[in-house]
Amino acid sequence: MTNARGILVGGGLANVLIALKLHAERPDSPMLVLEQGPTLGANHTWSFHETDLTPAQRAWIAPLVIASWPRQEVRFPSGRRVLETGYASVSSERLHAVAMELIGPSVRLNCPVSDVQPNGVTMADGATLEVPLVIDGRGALQEQPLALGFQKFVGLEIETDGPHGQAHPIIMDATVPQTDGYRFVYTLPFSATRLLIEDTYYSDTADLDPDRLAQGVEAYAAAQGWKVKRIIRREAGVLPITLAGDIDLHWRTMGRDIPRSGLRAWLFHATTGYSFPNAVRLAEELARAPELKSEAVARLIEKRSRETWKTQAIFRLLNRSMFLAAAPAGRVRILDRFYAKLPTAMIERFYAGALRNTDIAMLMAVMATKPPVKFGRAIACLSEASSWKFASKQRATKPQLG
Ligand SMILES: Cc1cc2nc3c(=O)[nH]c(=O)nc-3n(C[C@H](O)[C@H](O)[C@H](O)COP(=O)(O)OP(=O)(O)OC[C@H]3O[C@@H](n4cnc5c(N)ncnc54)[C@H](O)[C@@H]3O)c2cc1C
Q1: Is domain 6-66+87-141+248-311 given the CATH code 3.50.50.60 in the classification?
Q2: Average of pLDDT values for 278-295?
Q3: Cα 161 to averaged position of ligand 1 atoms, centre (Å)
Q4: Which of 3, 30, 331, 334 is the most exposed place for a label (fewest CB within 10 A)?
C-alpha cells in the first residue's frame, strides 16, 4: 500500500533531484523512491560548471553543494590556462543526507525492484504497488544502441600532510604521460588539506584496473609535492562517450509507455558523459508538467531526450574525430587546441551543451587546422549514420556500458 502519487524507481541522481523538486513545488503529489542500495546516490562526486545552470537552478540545488570555486584551470603540453568560470561539486553523501531529511518517510532503501510497469512496480520480494506515475531511473542499460568510447577514472580523496596550496580545481592536467588514449588528472581542492584527485582516460575500452589507476593518483600527488597523510575515500567510474547511435531503436526497444530518467533516457553530455545539469533541467520540467501520469510524462521525457540527442550531434562528431579519426596518442592534441584557441564564453557553452551555430563554425575551423587526424579517416567519420552502421556491425565484439 502507498499513498504516493508516483514511484521513482532507483534513488540515483536523476530521480532524487526529481523527488526533491516535486516535494518543493508540488507537495500535493508525494513521490515514493525505491532504491536497491543502502543509501541514495551511491558513491559519487558530481561536478558542474557554474554556467551549466541558471542562477535559479543553482539556488535550488545549493543545499547539495559541498564545495564551489570562482575559477578553474587546465594544463596541456602547450601551456596552462585559468578560466574565470565557477565550478562546483555535489557529493552523494550530501545528496543522501539532504533528501533523507526532507523526504525520508517517502524513501525505501535496500528495496530492489524487479519489474516496472506504467501503473506500478513489483519488488524483488514479490510485493506490488500501483500508482498513476512510475519513473524508471535505474541508470544506464547494459545493452543499448550506441557506439561508445569511454571516460574511465579512479579518484582518491586524500588528506595531505600540511596545506597543499592548490586554490582552485584543475579540471584537466594533460601534461602527464599519455597512455590508453587521452589521459589527464583532475583535482578538486575541498579544503586546505583535502583533495579529490582522479586519474582519467578517454579510452577505447571500458575495462578499468582500479589499483593501477590509484597508483597513478598517488604518483601524481607525489610529483606535485603533496604528501598523502591518509586516503579518505575512493571512487571509480566508466562514463559513456557517445560516438554514434540510434535513438529511435533505443526508445522502441525500451518501451515508450514507461517514463525514464537520467542516463536511461540518454540525458547526458555526449563528450563529457556528465548528466548533472540534464538531471536538474528534467526535475524542473517535471515540476511544471501539466499532468503527473505515466502516459503524459513518458511523452514529455521522450521529447526532451530526442531534442537533447539532436543538439548533441556536434559533440558526437567531435567524439568521432577523437576516437575514430585520431590515433589514441593524438587525442590530447585535439583538447590542447580546443583550450588554446577557443574563447571562455564558448567553452562555457560547450560544457552547457548550448553551442550556437557560430560556435560550431569556430570549433570546426579550429579542429580542421593542423588536425592530428588522418584525412581519410576524418572524412569517413563525418556521417553519423554510416559510422553507426559500421559500429553496429562490430558491436558484438565491443564492450557495452556496464
Ligand atoms: C563515479 C562517477 C562520477 C561521476 N561524476 C560526474 C560529474 O562530476 N558530473 C556529472 O554531471 N556526471 C558525473 N557522472 C555521470 C553521471 O552524472 C552519473 O553516472 C549519474 O549518477 C547518473 O544518474 P542516473 O540517475 O541516471 O543514475 P544513477 O545515479 O546511477 O542512479 C541509478 C540508481 O538506480 C538504482 N537501481 C538500479 N537498479 C535498481 C533496481 N532494480 N531497483 C531499485 N534501484 C535500482 C541504483 O542503485 C542507483 O542508485 C559520474 C558518474 C560516476 C560513476
Answers
A1: yes
A2: 97
A3: 32
A4: 3
